Amino acid sequence: MYTKRLLINITSSIVSFLVSMGINFVLTPYIVETVGKEAYGFVGLANNFVSYAQLITLALNALAIRFITIKIHEEDMEGANQYFTSVVLANIFISTVLIIPATMIIIWINQLIKVPIDILKDVQMLWALVFLNFLINTVTSTFSIATFATNRLDLSSLRSIESNFLRVGILLGLFIIFEPHIWYLGIASLICTLFIFVTDMHYKKKLLSGLKVKVKYFDFKIVRELVKSGIWSVITKLGQILSDGLDLLITNIFIDPTAMGVLAIAKTVPTAVMGLIMTVSNVFSPQLTIHYAQDNTKALVEELKRAMKISGFFTNIALGTLIGLGMTFYTLWVPGENIGLIQILSIITLCAHLVGGVINSLFGIFNITNKLKVNSYVILGMGILNTTIVFILLETTSLGILAVAGVSAITSIIKNLTFTPIYVAKCLSIPKDSFYPLITRYIAASLMIIGVAYGIGSTISQYSWISLIIGGIFCGLAGIVVNYFLLFNKDERSQGIKKVKEIIRKQHV
C-alpha cells in the first residue's frame, strides 16, 4: 500500500513541477520581452527580500509541522491542537507587526537599491504585493499540515497544478487586456496563495477534522519551545542567504540593474532544477517523519537512501540535459540576450546543484531529529566565508557577476561533499561513511550523463525547437540507461523490471 502511495505522490509531484516549469518556460521570455530584463530582475530580488523577512518567522514555523505530525501519529490530538493553534495565532501576531517595516521598505525602496526612475512605481507596486503575499502565506501555511501528516502529497500536488494554471490565466488576461506592468506577477501570486489556503482548509477538514484553531489551546510555552528549536533554522537560513541569497542584491548595488537582470534570467532554469530536487525529496518527508516518530531507524535509513536515489535519478538527467543543450536552449528561449554569458552563469549555478541532487534528501534529517545546532553553525560559517570572498573578488578582479555566481557554487559543493553526509550519519547513529558509496555512484552517473549530453549537443548544427526536443529526448533516454546501471543496485534493477512487467501485464488485462 505504501509503495503505491509513494508512486502516486512522486508522479503527482513531478507532474506539478512539470506544469510549473512549462508555464515559466512560456511566460518568462514573454515577460522579459514585454517589461524588460531590468524590471524582471526586480521580481527575483523581491522574492529574495521575502527570504530575508522569513528569518523573523522561521524560528516559529521551521519545526511546526514536524511537531504537529509527531503528535498526530502518537495519537495525541489535544497536543496536536495545542501546537497547531499556538503556531497559527502567533503567526497572525507576527504578520501584523511586520506590516510596518514592509511599508517602510516599499516607500523608500529607491534609497535601498538602484531602481531606474521610469519603473520605480511599478517596482514599488510589485514589492507591495509580494510582501502582502508573504504575510498572508505566513498566516496560512500551517494549514497545509493535513496533506503532509496523512502522506497525501498527491492532493497538494493537484492543488499546485490547479494554482499554476490559475496563475497563467490571470497573467495572460492582465497582460493582454491591460497595459503591461511587472506588478501583475504579484497579483497572480497573491490570488494563488488565497486559492491554496482555501483548498488547504478543505483538506484539513476532510483529512484531519479533529485539528482546530481554538483560543483555549494556545500555549505560550509551546511558542517558546518552537522558537527555541527553530532558532537554529534561522541561523541556517541566514547562512544560506549569505551563500547565494544575496546574489541579485550584490549585483544590483555593486554592478547595475541590467547585470542583475541577466543573472536573474540565468538563474531561472537552475532554480527550476532545484525545484525538481525539492519536489521529489519532499515526497519522502512525511514517511521519514513517521518512521522517526515510531523510533524505526532501520526503516528511516532505507527510506532515506531510496529518496536520495530517486531524487538523484530525476535531477542529474535534467541537469545534464540542460548543460549539454544549454546554448541551443537559451538561443531559442531568450533571443537577443547575451547567450554566452547566460550559459556560463547557468552552468556555474547548476554545478552547485550537482551534488544537491542526491544530498538534498539528507537536509530534512536535521529537522526530523531536531538536531540543528551544528549544521546551522557550519552553514552560517560557509555563508560568511562566501560573502567575504565575493566582496574581495569584486574589489580586486574584473570577474563581476561571474564571481557572484561562482563562489556560492564552490562553497556549496565543498559543504555538501564533506560535512552534510557525515553529520547526518552521526544524527542517525550510523557509520559516518554510510552515504558515500551512493554519493560516489551518483556523481559518476551525473558526469557520464553530462558528457553524453555535451556530445549530443555538439551534433546540433542548426538551432530549432525540433532539434532541441529531439536532442532532449536522446539525453533523457541516455540518462535513464546510465542511472539504471550506475545508480541502482542489482536488486533494485530487478524490482524495477518486475514493476514494469506488472504494469504492462495490467494494461493487457
UniProtKB/TrEMBL annotation:
Upper taxonomic lineage: Bacteria, Bacillati, Bacillota, Clostridia, Lachnospirales
Membrane protein topology class: Multi-pass membrane protein
Any single Gene Ontology cellular-component annotation: plasma membrane
Native species: Zhenhengia yiwuensis
Annotated protein name in UniProt: MATE family efflux transporter
Classification via InterPro entries: Poly_Biosynth_Transport, Polysacc_synth
Keywords assigned: Cell membrane, Membrane, Transmembrane, Transmembrane helix
Segments traversing the membrane: 7-32, 52-72, 84-113, 125-149, 184-203, 313-333, 339-362, 374-394, 400-423, 435-457, 463-488
Location, primary (coarse class): membrane
Pfam family, one: Polysacc_synt
Cellular compartments annotated: Cell membrane
PANTHER family: PSMA PROTEIN, PST FAMILY PREDICTED COLANIC ACID TRANSPORTER
Signal sequence range: none
